[in-house]
């Protein structure tokens, strides 16, 4: 006879592999957010459009990433808001600082500024989960987002159309490189359980 105690299963903990695979799917947030921003506000050629386009793109990206992080991540609403506001501020500053140019150097700088701003906003949301490790996230994201724009430029994407975010080629690389985040969060969650 089975008792209640013997039929209960231990709670399943998300494995780091499962967390990384789930994160990879979130790459769709980049092109989806960029497309929505292009349709709603157009090319990034003024500060106002940069701010609005960054907010649209970041909110959609943040929603995709919040789904990917699930229970191991910070509160979904905080994550979405942090990503949206971070990209809005980052794109406003980044695109303006390079004069809305789309050369490789300009896009790498813009990507670094956007990554730094998104990373800083996300680090605030990650603080409770990751502690001091969250302090490194802005610098990591700045370097990775700069790389995302470099990959997109090298892939021959029509960057002169002034998108809010790098293309799918850059998004795949950025998503793969940032998969360390859900792995860290799921590992930390496993240790706390």
Task: Report on the architecture of this protein.
By secondary structure, this protein is mostly helical. It has one domain (16-186). 72% of the residues lie in helices and 0% in strands. The protein is built from nine helices and no strands. Helix 2 (16-24) packs antiparallel against helix 4 and helix 6 packs antiparallel against helix 7. It is globular, with a radius of gyration of 18 Å. The mean pLDDT is 90.
Computed structural class: mainly alpha
Instruction: Using the CA coordinates, give the radius of gyration.
Output: 18 Å
Number of domains: 1
User: Using DSSP, what is the number of strands?
Assistant: 0
Low-confidence segments: none
Q: Could you tell me how far the N terminus lies from the C terminus, measured between alpha carbons in angstroms?
A: 30 Å
- The share of residues in helices is over 70%
Give the SSE layout:
Layout: H1 4-7, H2 16-24, H3 29-41, H4 47-69, H5 76-97, H6 104-130, H7 137-154, H8 168-177, H9 180-192
Helix pairs in contact: 2-4, 2-9, 3-4, 4-5, 5-6, 6-7, 7-8
Give a concise summary.
This protein is mainly alpha-helical. It has helices spanning 4-7, 16-24, 29-41, 47-69, 76-97, 104-130, 137-154, 168-177, 180-192.
Label this structure with key terms.
single chain
């Amino acid at each position: 006879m089975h008792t209640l105690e013997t039929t209960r299963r231990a709670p399943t903990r998300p494995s780091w592999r499962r967390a990384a695979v789930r994160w990879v799917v979130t790459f769709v947030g980049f092109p989806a957010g960029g497309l929505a921003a292009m349709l709603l506000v157009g090319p990034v050629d003024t500060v106002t459009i940069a701010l609005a386009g960054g907010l649209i793109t970041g909110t959609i990206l943040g929603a995709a990433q919040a789904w990917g992080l699930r229970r191991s991540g910070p509160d979904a609403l905080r994550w979405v808001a942090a990503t949206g506001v971070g990209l809005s501020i980052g794109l406003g500053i980044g695109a303006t600082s390079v004069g809305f140019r789309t050369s490789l150097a300009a896009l790498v700088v813009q990507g670094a500024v956007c990554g730094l701003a998104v990373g800083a906003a996300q680090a605030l949301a990650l603080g409770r989960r990751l502690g001091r490790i969250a302090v490194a996230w802005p610098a990591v994201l700045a370097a990775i987002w700069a790389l995302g724009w470099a990959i997109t430029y090298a892939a021959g994407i029509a960057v002169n159309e002034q998108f809010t975010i790098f293309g799918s080629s850059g998004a795949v690389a950025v998503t793969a490189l940032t998969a360390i985040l859900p792995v860290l969060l799921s590992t930390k969650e496993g240790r706390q359980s």
